[in-house]
Batch of 2 targets.
Target 1
Amino acid sequence: DAKTTQPTSMDCAEGRAANLPCNHSTISGNEYVYWYRQIHSQGPQYIIHGLKNNETNEMASLIITEDRKSSTLILPHATLRDTAVYYCIVLSGGYQKVTFGIGTKLQVIP
Amino acid sequence: NAGVMQNPRHLVRRRGQEARLRCSPMKGHSHVYWYRQLPEEGLKFMVYLQKENIIDESGMPKERFSAEFPKEGPSILRIQQVVRGDSAAYFCASSHRYATNEKLFFGSGTQLSVL
């Protein structure tokens, strides 16, 4: 699986959009980009995933660059409950044998 | 619909004892994954099981650790003769099928503390 690089931490004002970047320059054509988040002491929660097209669901939007070497997770209106560690991972091979890296610690500020 | 259920939520063991962690996947899910998270670190894959079969245990320590997912009942992660270094949060996840674009549903984890 391709490696990913994320900033260690970010702050975002409550009510504003949170844009979390992820670099995955070695991604291959059949690898999906996934985002999960982990709120303190809880299990990770699935957010969104995509292959090459941009995706949107009730939680977030995922923007994947045309060359697929990077992506951005957008939380359109961040709330205090969005404070969490956000993990960007790329997957192939049919099952999710993956190590979640350190991720980005997002702090939403009132 | 019940999510992935893990128990116990907290488990305290003395060095040398055995720890048994249980995971009931979501209804209809037959694929189970176990992950370990050490303090201030990310989650690391340990083992992937389907009903009655271990598919990939490449992330599991060779000694003292074992996992099973019987035909009936929860998946069990067993740690024999625990040591202080085994203290961590252990998370179980399940999925409906074998597919790259299949999302995982995680339980709340078991926090193992070894005294």
Target 2
Amino acid sequence: EDQVTQSPEALRLQEGESSSLNCSYTVSGLRGLFWYRQDPGKGPEFLFTLYSAGEEKEKERLKATLTKKESFLHITAPKPEDSATYLCAVHNQAGTALIFGKGTTLSVSS
Amino acid sequence: DAGVIQSPRHEVTEMGQEVTLRCKPISGHNSLFWYRQTMMRGLELLIYFNNNVPIDDSGMPEDRFSAKMPNASFSTLKIQPSEPRDSAVYFCASSSGYQETQYFGPGTRLLVL
């Protein structure tokens, strides 16, 4: 069964304290792994797409990496405005739907 | 450039009433998706349209739910009759192809009393 698991469920950091979020997946024939950011009361906002093991993408303080079984979202020197829920998703085997993890809620305090 | 537009943003209704949610995808996108988000189950796909044709509706919970896409710029998700367990946030997303990046609207927060 296609599945996405994210950990931890919640993460509290001090401003400047770097950390990583994990997304592990089980799907045959990965067609893309997606990271989204969701702020309270808003829709998911696209961050990155990764397609093959070893691939990395960066945007400001965020860097996403991909292996054959999992992806990491590294947050370097986070700021309070990075506080949000980060969602990971993969296409199902048929490629017709995104399967989302439950997300990691990040809180960064100053 | 306008993103995905959804209306209404909030809907409060009583059990048994009909609810219609609306979505305008990003211009030029030919794939449209309806999702439901709850605390317990997270984000789940309800139905997927490609070129206005429903391709995968396996996520539609039951016959009380129906979705239409009469043209490339408009889609509706209807619940009739509504039940309290339908309370959730409903998102519409669109993409330029069925495996391309999906862009989400702001969602409709539905509360069925």
